[in-house]
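Long-time lurker, first post. I've been practising inverse folding by hand and with some scripts of my own, and I keep getting stuck on stretches where the C-alpha cells seem ambiguous. Below is the full C-alpha cell string for one chain I'm working on. Before anyone asks, I'm not after the true native sequence, just a reasonable design that respects the backbone. If someone could post their per-position residues I'd love to compare against what I wrote down in my notebook.
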C-alpha cells in the first residue's frame, strides 16, 4: 500500500446507505459502528431521490455507497447506473436475494462489489474498505477511459506493426468509419495519396528512433472526402524499452486550412478575375529575371490597357464591365503559354510576363494573340461588348541589369505610346529596339 493509500485508509470513510427498509438500515448502521462509534460517518437515504438531495443540496461527498437494488423509485440492476449518475463513489450492492444473474448484472453495470444482507459486520466493513481501495487504485484507468471516450480529438491505438486495436467516438465522427469497421485494419485505409512513400518512411523513422512524430497530413473520410489533420503519434514502451502500442491523436483542421488558403488567395490574387495581383506579379517577375539571367534567355514585359472600357461601364453599367474584364482576362490567360504569367494591376490594366524567349521576334505572335483576345466581342444580355487594347512591350536581355520596377515603368511608357499611335496595337520601348507598332 502506498503512503497516500495508507493516509486515505486512516481517514474516517463517509458512507451513504441507500435503503428503504428502516430495520435493515439500522442493522447495517449498527454493524458499521459496532467496533467504534467513529469508524464510519453514516448517512441514510430511503430512495435515489433522497440520496440526490443529500449530494446536491447538502453537498455530501460519500466515500462509498451501500445500495439496495429495490427502492421506491428504482428496481433491479439498473439501479446501479442510476446511482452512478449521482456520484463517482464506489458502489457496493446489498441484496436480500440469492439472485446470481441480477448480482452479476449489477457488477457489469458498475458496482464494485455485492453483499448479502444479514451477513457478518466484519465482512461488511472489510468490503467497504476494499471497495474504496480498488476504486482509488483504478482512478487513473477510469480517467483515461473517460478522456478516451469524451475527447474531441480522434484517438487511434495500434499494435507495433500498425494494426488498429481501438478507436474512440471522435475518430468515427471525423473519419466516418464506425469502430467495428476499422478494428484489425491498418490506418492506411485513410490515405488520400497526397503524401508519397517518402513522407511515411520519414514518419516511421521518427517513430522507431524517437518514439514520437507530429505533423500535418491529408487523409480521406469513408465517403471519399479529403480532410486535413494535425496528427501526433507516440510509442508506448514497456520497462525494457520495447514498443507495445502506438497511440495517435488527431484533430480535423480542414476548416483552418481552407481559411488559410482563402487568405493566401486574397493576398496574391485579384478577387474579380482571379489572376495574380500586383504582389504576386512582383514575385513572379523577380523569379523570372533570376531564371533569365541564369539561362541567358530573353524576357518580355507587356503592359496592357483596354481601350474603350470606360464607355462600356458608362453605357451598360459596372456589372457589364465586370463581365467584360473577367472574360477578357480568361481569354488572355489561355492564349499564353504555361511558362508565362498575366496579372491584373487594377481597373482595366494588366501585365504579361513572357519568358523563355529565344529572341525578340518570338514575342510577336504572343502579343498578337493578346490583342486578338482583348478585341473579341463579349456577349452581355444580348449586347455585344467590345474593346481593344494598347500594349507596351519592353525586353530584358541576358546582360541587362534592369530590375523589375524599371521594366514595368518602361512597359508602361511604351503602352502610352501605343495609345498615342491610335490604340489597338503595341509599341516596343524605344531604348530597346526602336519603335515598333
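-- Answer (accepted) --
I ran through it position by position. Result:
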Amino acid at each position: 500500500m502506498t503512503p497516500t493509500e495508507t493516509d486515505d485508509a486512516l481517514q474516517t470513510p463517509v458512507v451513504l446507505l441507500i435503503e428503504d427498509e428502516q430495520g435493515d438500515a439500522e442493522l447495517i448502521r449498527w454493524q458499521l459502528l459496532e467496533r467504534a462509534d467513529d469508524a464510519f460517518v453514516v448517512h441514510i437515504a430511503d430512495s435515489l431521490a433522497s440520496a440526490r438531495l443529500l449530494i446536491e443540496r447538502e453537498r455530501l461527498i460519500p466515500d462509498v455507497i451501500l445500495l439496495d437494488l429495490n427502492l421506491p423509485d428504482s428496481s433491479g440492476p439498473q439501479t446501479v447506473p442510476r446511482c452512478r449518475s449521482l456520484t463517482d463513489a464506489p458502489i457496493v450492492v446489498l441484496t436480500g436475494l440469492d439472485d446470481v444473474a441480477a448480482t452479476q448484472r449489477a457488477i457489469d453495470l458498475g458496482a464494485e462489489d455485492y453483499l448479502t444482507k444479514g451477513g457478518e459486520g466484519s465482512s461488511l466493513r472489510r468490503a467497504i474498505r476494499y471497495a474504496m481501495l480498488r476504486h482509488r487504485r483504478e482512478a487513473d484507468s477510469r480517467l483515461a477511459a473517460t478522456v478516451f471516450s469524451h475527447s474531441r480529438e480522434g484517438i487511434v491505438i495500434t499494435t507495433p506493426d500498425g494494426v488498429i486495436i481501438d478507436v474512440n467516438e471522435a475518430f468515427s465522427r471525423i473519419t466516418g468509419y464506425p469502430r467495428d469497421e476499422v478494428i484489425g485494419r491498418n490506418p492506411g485505409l485513410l490515405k488520400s495519396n497526397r503524401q508519397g512513400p517518402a513522407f511515411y518512411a520519414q514518419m516511421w523513422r521518427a517513430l522507431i528512433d524517437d518514439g514520437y512524430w507530429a505533423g500535418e497530413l491529408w487523409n480521406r473520410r469513408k465517403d471519399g472526402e479529403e480532410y486535413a489533420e494535425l496528427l501526433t503519434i507516440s510509442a508506448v514502451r514497456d520497462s525494457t524499452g520495447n514498443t507495445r502500442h502506438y497511440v495517435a491523436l488527431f484533430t480535423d483542421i480542414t476548416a483552418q486550412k481552407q481559411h488559410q488558403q482563402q487568405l493566401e488567395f486574397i493576398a496574391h490574387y485579384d478577387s474579380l478575375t482571379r489572376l495574380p495581383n500586383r504582389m504576386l506579379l512582383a514575385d513572379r517577375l523577380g523569379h523570372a529575371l533570376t531564371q533569365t539571367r541564369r539561362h541567358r534567355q530573353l524576357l518580355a514585359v507587356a503592359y496592357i490597357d483596354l481601350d474603350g472600357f470606360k464607355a462600356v461601364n458608362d453605357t451598360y453599367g459596372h456589372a457589364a464591365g465586370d463581365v467584360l474584364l473577367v472574360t477578357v482576362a480568361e481569354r488572355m490567360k489561355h492564349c499564353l503559354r504555361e511558362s508565362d504569367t498575366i496579372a491584373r494591376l487594377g481597373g482595366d490594366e494588366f501585365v504579361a510576363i513572357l519568358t523563355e524567349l529565344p529572341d525578340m521576334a518570338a514575342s510577336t505572335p504572343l502579343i498578337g494573340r493578346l490583342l486578338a483576345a482583348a478585341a473579341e466581342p463579349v456577349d452581355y444580355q444580348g449586347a455585344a461588348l467590345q474593346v481593344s487594347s494598347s500594349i507596351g512591350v519592353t525586353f530584358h536581355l541576358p546582360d541587362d541589369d534592369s530590375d523589375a520596377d524599371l521594366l514595368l515603368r518602361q512597359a508602361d511608357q511604351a503602352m502610352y505610346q501605343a495609345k498615342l499611335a491610335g490604340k489597338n496595337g503595341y509599341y516596343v520601348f524605344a531604348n530597346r529596339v526602336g519603335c515598333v507598332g
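A couple of notes from the structure itself: The chain has three domains: 3-137, 146-257, 269-433. The longest strand covers residues 226-237. Happy to go over any region you disagree with.
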